[in-house]
Amino acid sequence: MPTDMKKITMAKIHCYECGKDIRRTKEYTTLEVYDSPFDEQSKTIHLHVDNKISEHYGISCEEALYDEHWADFRYFDCPLCQRTIIRQCPTNGWHSYVRDYEDQEICLGCFERIIIKEGIARERFEAGKLDGMFFNEEDLVNAGYEMVPDMENFFVRTKYDVERYCSVALQYIDEGYLVISEYEHMAIGGLEGYQTMWIKRKESSDSKLINHQTDREEVTIHGH
Q1: CA-based, 20 to 30 A from 146: which of 38, 68, 197, 210?
Q2: Model pTM?
C-alpha cells in the first residue's frame, strides 16, 4: 500500500520498475512490499507515478508493479492483511502466493491461517477442487490436526483419483471433522502429485484420531 507521495527534495533514489533516477521535478510513491507472504520484514521501493513506462504500453511505473500483462512477478494488495505482496515465488517462478477466497484474491499466509482455523470448505470438495498448500507439519499438529493414514502421500493424477480423494474428504466433513490437504510433491501447475489429508474434530482441537481406515466404504484407496 502507498505510504508517501511527494516531490523529490532529498538524496537521489531509483525507480524500482524502470531503474531510472527519479528526478527532482517528478512525483513518486514509496511502498513497503513483501517478496513472500510469510516474511515479517518488508522492503522499501520507490516508483514513478506520472510517467509512461514504455512508448508502446501507456502505464506508469506504479501501475506496472501490479500489471500481469506487463511482466511476471507482479504484486497485489491482499485485502485481509493489507500488505503488498509478490504474486509468485521469485526463486522458483511457479509457486503461487495467491489464493481465491470468497470471490477475492488473498495471500497464501492469510489462506493458511483461515484453513487451519476453518478447514477447507465442503463446496470445494463437492466441486472436485483439491485446494491445499505446502505446510509446516508441526503447525498442523500444534493446531490439533492428525494425519489420515490411508490418505498419506495420496497420488493424484486422474479424474478418478480426484473423485476418490474428494469423496473421502466429504465423508469426514459429514462426520464432523475439519479437513485440510497438505501438498507433498506437486508438478508445476499442480496438475498431478502427492498430497496428504489431515483432519480435526470441529468441537475439540485435541480429539484423537480413532479408526480412520477409509476401507469402511469397501473401496481400496490407491495411495503411495
Answers
A1: 38
A2: 0.74
